[in-house]
Every structure is written in structure tokens, then in C-alpha cells.
């Protein structure tokens, strides 16, 4: 794993932006904490892969994107969806398998997408987003309106061959693709370093500018992705940003029931990443306090508002009608000429 | 009407659609020089923004087609040989076939993938598969197998204008065949078979490149007093069940000729449909004439021995016309 740079000075953001970034990270955190409960109590038809601990990556990156920019997401996509402006009610209804879901209950947790907001979908195939983002970036370049396509992927996906292929096309054709690696150190249930040769960032260095940042620092991510996006919009081609972060929950919820008592990392390691000075949400809260942007009471009020928002989404999801089984055959094929 | 080579008809379809829709993009393996001739001359006419050679990386090419379509473009992706779909399979099987459904209908993917298929050219097994059976099982993928110049043009144009990922499979090495093509705008709908030869004793469904040897067999059989009706399905997904069932209702017999390997071939599917929906019409067992479950060898004689030809087809037809259920 490459060491994040510490010499990049974080550009100042105004108070309102700092607060918005914090709120958005907190929304992802509280929404997913609620999904832990829903998963455990059997409310959800399928599994969920949670993003807790990585919120700063999605929020920092999407804070420099607009609805007209494209993102491709991963199987761990709730955070990307919410950070890019996806609707929490529609996402929860989807995860609950309801007709009111963003994908009408046809996709579920691993496939939340809102094409109208440039969210080309979470994806159940590790690494599938490389090529989709590259294709969307090509479209953006042909269109010439300065859109960019950001590909969120993990260190696990970086071992797929299409990582190299898509970086190659993006570099050869100078496409506005931002390859954003969320390096959380694990590939599903396997420690990535045990299956990876060399340094991931070096793979990208062969093709494009590279920046490795502290992925648990929302401002650092915002600055690095901001520079990459600015370069892409200006016709400067693709970039690679690697955000060093950590996945607090398992590959998927309730995984312990599937692992036969085995483990792939220690409780101490997980706890270390949850410390006040490492957890992205706690760090953001501390920064708001230290900078005098919020006092403790206001932080508590923000949290209470977010929790209320999450409970409203649960109520929306629960109240929704079940998915329509007739819809599947109707949706399979598009209209013909 | 004008007589045109099959490959010229395909090229014409592309030119017309590229002129019609500025958001149509053609990319893929060697589309600028075009070894099959289908995309030749397009880059000079429409420029490299719209006609573009890609690197050889099918896994990414198929995914890029999905991304480009998501960004509002119509896409023609050329994969050269249909064996290469195996390398590009994730975005075919997991993405383009499924994303419309998985996104609740948000994603329309107007993607047409072009590739040559089939044997008979000593290209050896990795360039000779008839891969439509694989595609037929994926779900949201349409498959066209044109047999003549007019259908090639009309089906291609329909595929390009549609909103569903479609595989347009060209019989490799058959681009030089001549055929009449209607003048002016010519679109052929999907899911409509044609009767290539009328007959009364037996229905023979001949897929793609198998039409020609089947018609030859039908001619020979006519000399023996056996009247074979030959149906060209034109598209396998969607498949025109009604035309086949109506024919079988008259003839009482079905033979399906397919260049795919026997197991789970298109012929197997068509035979099953008729068994399900046309059982009462049948007066003899359904016969499939296919490639055995082996890879096609390189040597011309060894290859030819495996691909259905007029003799094997005629023999299958005779076997069902001689047979009759009590």
C-alpha cells in the first residue's frame, strides 16, 4: 500500500461546505447503522455490503461533481449513491424490495442507480465499473461539455484485468475518467496484500497522474479529486486517485455466519480505525468544533436531524407496496424500432 | 431493387444510420480498415470521433459500449469474430443483458454488437464458433442471423434504432454473396420469420448460414417427391414461433438445421417449442441437424465433415417423412 501524502495542504472550504460535507457523511453513517439493525432483525430480503468507515471518500469526491457528471459504483454503493445526491427514501425502498424503490425493487442494495443524477449504478461484479466509466467518459468527451466520469473501485477490483485495459483506453484517448481507488486493504474476505504484487498506484503511474491521499479525511479527498476533475474537465485526460481507508463492517452483514468461525483481520485492527483521530465522521466533527463552525449542541442537533431523516426513510420503505412481479418480463427488453 | 453483396448492404445500412443519427458511434476491432469489409470507408466519411479502432481488450470494449450508451449514444461495437464474446462476457452477460431490468427500466442500452460467426473457412476452433446459443440464454439480448443482403441491411438498421442490446451475427466468409436489396428506406422487423421455400410434407427451419445447404437439400428432395417447406427465422431472439407452428400444423414434421453445437443449440430450443406448443400437429419425431459436440477442426475435410451439408439435411428429412406416428 502506498503511503498517503501528508504534504498536500488542504484547501480551505467555507463553513457551509464543511458543514454540508459532515452532514452528508453522517447521513451515510446513520443510514447504514440502521441497515445493520434491519438486516439483523430480518427486515431485508437480501444482503447488504456496508460502507461504514469509508464515507469521506464518496462525500469528498462527489462534492466536486454535479448531477451531469457520471459515477460508477461498486457492490458497496450506498455511500456513493447518497453522496452523489441519490434519494434516501428511494434507496431504502429499493433495499426493502419495494415498488417504490429507485429501481422498483428489481436491483436491490447492490444495484442502486439513479441515471438522472449520473449514478450509473452500483454493481455486483467487482471491477465492472472500469469499462462502464471509460465508455461514459468517452461519451462525455465526444459531447464536449466538460462532464467527467468517476469510477469508484476497491483495491480488490484493481486486480481485475479491465483495470489496466480501461486505464489504457482512457489514457490513449485522453478521456475525462477519474479512477478513484478506495483502498481499504481487503478484497472481500482476503487481505489484499496477500494477493497483490507491487504497489497499486504504480500500475496507474504508467498511464496517468497519480495522487494518494488519506481517504478518511474528507477535505483531502475533495482536494485530490477536485484537482483530477478539474484536469479532466479541461481536456487533460484521466487521473488516478487512491484514498487510503478502512472497511469497518464485514464484506457483507452477518458474514460471521458464513465464515465458520474463521477471521481475516483482528478486532484490534478494526478498533484502531474507529479511533477518534481516524474515523472520518469523528474527525470531521472534531474539525467543525475546533474551527468554531459548530458547537457541540449544534453537532447534536445535526445528528438528531439525520437520525430523524433515516427513520422517515425506513417508514417510507416499510409503507411502500411490494415490487411488481409482472414488471420483470416487461423490463427485460427495450422498445424496438 | 438492386443486386448487392451482403457486405455492401451492411455497409449501406451503417452509412444511412450514421447520417441519420449524429449520436451513432462505431468502434471496435479494426473498424477503420475492416477485414470483413462491413465498416470500410466509414472513417474517411464520418471521422475518427465516430468510427474508431479500439485496443484489443474485449472485456473493456463490451463494458465501454454500456458506458457510452448510458451517456446517451447509440453504439455499434465490432468484435470481429463471435468467439471473442467469451473474453468480453461480463459486460454482455452481467451488464448489457441485465441493466435495463436491474435499474427498474432507467437504462436504455441501444447497443448493436457485430461479429462474424460459423465455420467452413479453416479458421480453426477459436474463430469458428456459432455462439448464438450462449447469447440466447442470457435474457435481455436480441440475436439476428441474416441470410441475405436485404435482410442484412434491414435487420441491421432495426437493431441500431432499437433500444435493446442486439447481436448482429454475420456468417463469416459469406460477405460476397449477392442479393436483391430494396431501394430507399428498408427496415426488417425482428421476430418475423420468412418462408424461403414453400412445401407441404415437412417443415425445415434453417438458421443463418444453414439456409443455403438446406435449400439445396430441398431441391434434391423435390426430385424424390418430398416437398420441404424451408423457414428462415432471421432472428433467434425474438423468435417467430407462430410461423413455425403454423407450418408444422400443415406439414406435421419438423427438422431444424443449426450450425451450433448440438447440446443446448438453437435447434434444441426450437424443437422444444414445437414439442410444447405443436405436439398435436406432429406426425413424426422432431429431428435436429447440428454440429456434434466437438470443436471445429482446422483441416478443411475434417471441418466439412462436421458442419451440416445438403446430404445430412436431406437424410434427416427423409428419416422423418418415412416415419409416421400411429
TrEMBL record, chain A:
CDD domains the record matches: TPP_E1_PDC_ADC_BCADC (cd02000)
Cofactor: thiamine diphosphate
Coiled-coil blocks: none
Domain Dehydrogenase E1 component, residue spans: 23-325
InterPro entries listed in its UniProt record: DH_E1, PDH_E1_Alpha_Subunit, THDP-binding
Keywords of the record: Oxidoreductase, Thiamine pyrophosphate
Source species of the chain: Pseudonocardia benzenivorans
Superkingdom to which the source organism belongs: Bacteria
Protein name: Thiamine pyrophosphate-dependent dehydrogenase E1 component subunit alpha
Amino acid at each position: 500500500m502506498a503511503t498517503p501524502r501528508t504534504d498536500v495542504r488542504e484547501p480551505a472550504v467555507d463553513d457551509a461546505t464543511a458543514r454540508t460535507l459532515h452532514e452528508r457523511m453522517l447521513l451515510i453513517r446513520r443510514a447504514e447503522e440502521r441497515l445493520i439493525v434491519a438486516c439483523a432483525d430480518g427486515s431485508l430480503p437480501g444482503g447488504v455490503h456496508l460502507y461504514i468507515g469509508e464515507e469521506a471518500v464518496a462525500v469528498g469526491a462527489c462534492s466536486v461533481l454535479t448531477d451531469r457528471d457520471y459515477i460508477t459504483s461498486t457492490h458497496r454503493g450506498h455511500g456513493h449513491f447518497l453522496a452523489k445526491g441519490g434519494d434516501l427514501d428511494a434507496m431504502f425502498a429499493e433495499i426493502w424490495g419495494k415498488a417504490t424503490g429507485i429501481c422498483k425493487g428489481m436491483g436491490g442494495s447492490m444495484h442502486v442507480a439513479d441515471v438522472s443524477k449520473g449514478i450509473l449504478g452500483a454493481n455486483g461484479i467487482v471491477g465492472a465499473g472500469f469499462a462502464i466509466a471509460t465508455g461514459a467518459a468517452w461519451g462525455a468527451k465526444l459531447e464536449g461539455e466538460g462532464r467527467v466520469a468517476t469510477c469508484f473501485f476497491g483495491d480488490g477490483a484493481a486486480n481485475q484485468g479491465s483495470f489496466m485495459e480501461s486505464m489504457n483506453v482512457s489514457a490513449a484517448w485522453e478521456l475525462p475518467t477519474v479512477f478513484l481507488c478506495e483502498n481499504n486493504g481487503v478484497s472481500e474476505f482476503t487481505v489484499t496484500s496477500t494477493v497483490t504484487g507491487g504497489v497499486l498506484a504504480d500500475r496507474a503511474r504508467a498511464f496517468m497522474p497519480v495522487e494518494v491521499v488519506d481517504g478518511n479525511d474528507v477535505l483531502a479527498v475533495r482536494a485530490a479529486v477536485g484537482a483530477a476533475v478539474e484536469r479532466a474537465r479541461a481536456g487533460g485526460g484521466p487521473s488516478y486517485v487512491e484514498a487510503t481507508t478502512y472497511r469497518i463492517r464485514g464484506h457483507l452483514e452477518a458474514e460471521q455466519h458464513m465464515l465458520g468461525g474463521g477471521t481475516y483481520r483482528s478486532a484490534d485492527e478494526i478498533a484502531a480505525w474507529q479511533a477518534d483521530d481516524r474515523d472520518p465522521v469523528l474527525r470531521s466533527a472534531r474539525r467543525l468544533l475546533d474551527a468554531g463552525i459548530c458547537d457541540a449542541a449544534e453537532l447534536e442537533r445535526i445528528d438528531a436531524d439525520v437520525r430523524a431523516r433515516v427513520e422517515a426513510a425506513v417508514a417510507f420503505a416499510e409503507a411502500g407496496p411490494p415490487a411488481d412481479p409482472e414488471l420483470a418480463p416487461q423490463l427485460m427488453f427495450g422498445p424496438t424500432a | 431493387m438492386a443486386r448487392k453483396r451482403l457486405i455492401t448492404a451492411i455497409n449501406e445500412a451503417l452509412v444511412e444510420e450514421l447520417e441519420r443519427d449524429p449520436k451513432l458511434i462505431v468502434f471496435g476491432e479494426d473498424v477503420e480498415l475492416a477485414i470483413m469489409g462491413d465498416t470500410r470507408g466509414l472513417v474517411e466519411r464520418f471521422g475518427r470521433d465516430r468510427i474508431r479502432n479500439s485496443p484489443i481488450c474485449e472485456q473493456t470494449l463490451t463494458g465501454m459500449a454500456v458506458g457510452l450508451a448510458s451517456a446517451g449514444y447509440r453504439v455499434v461495437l465490432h468484435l470481429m469474430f463471435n468467439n471473442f464474446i467469451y473474453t468480453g462476457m461480463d459486460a454482455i452477460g452481467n451488464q448489457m443483458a441485465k441493466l435495463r431490468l436491474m435499474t427498474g427500466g432507467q437504462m436504455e442500452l441501444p447497443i448493436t454488437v457485430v461479429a462474424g460467426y460459423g465455420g467452413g473457412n479453416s479458421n480453426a476452433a477459436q474463430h469458428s464458433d456459432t455462439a448464438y446459443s450462449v447469447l440466447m440464454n442470457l435474457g435481455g439480448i436480441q440475436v439476428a442471423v441474416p441470410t441475405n443482403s436485404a435482410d442484412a441491411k434491414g435487420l441491421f438498421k432495426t437493431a441500431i434504432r432499437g433500444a435493446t442490446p442486439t447481436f448482429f451475427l454475420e456468417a463469416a466468409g459469406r460477405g460476397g454473396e449477392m442479393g436483391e436489396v430494396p431501394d430507399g428506406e428498408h427496415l426488417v422487423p425482428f421476430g418475423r420469420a420468412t418462408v424461403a421455400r414453400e412445401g407441404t410434407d415437412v417443415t425445415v427451419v434453417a438458421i443463418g448460414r444453414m439456409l443455403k445447404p438446406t435449400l439445396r437439400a430441398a431441391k434434391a428432395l423435390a426430385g424424390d417427391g418430398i416437398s420441404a417447406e424451408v423457414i428462415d427465422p432471421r432472428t433467434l431472439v425474438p423468435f417467430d414461433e407462430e410461423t413455425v407452428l403454423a407450418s408444422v400444423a400443415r406439414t406435421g414434421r419438423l427438422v431444424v438445421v443449426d450450425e451450433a453445437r448440438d447440446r443446448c443449440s438453437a435447434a434444441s430450443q426450437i424443437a422444444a417449442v414445437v414439442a410444447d406448443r405443436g405436439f398435436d400437429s406432429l406426425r413424426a419425431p422432431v429431428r435436429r441437424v447440428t454440429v456434434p459436440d466437438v470443436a471445429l477442426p482446422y483441416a478443411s475435410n475434417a471441418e466439412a465433415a462436421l458442419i451440416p451439408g445438403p446430404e445430412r439435411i436431406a437424410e434427416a428429412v427423409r428419416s422423418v417423412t418415412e416415419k409416421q406416428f400411429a
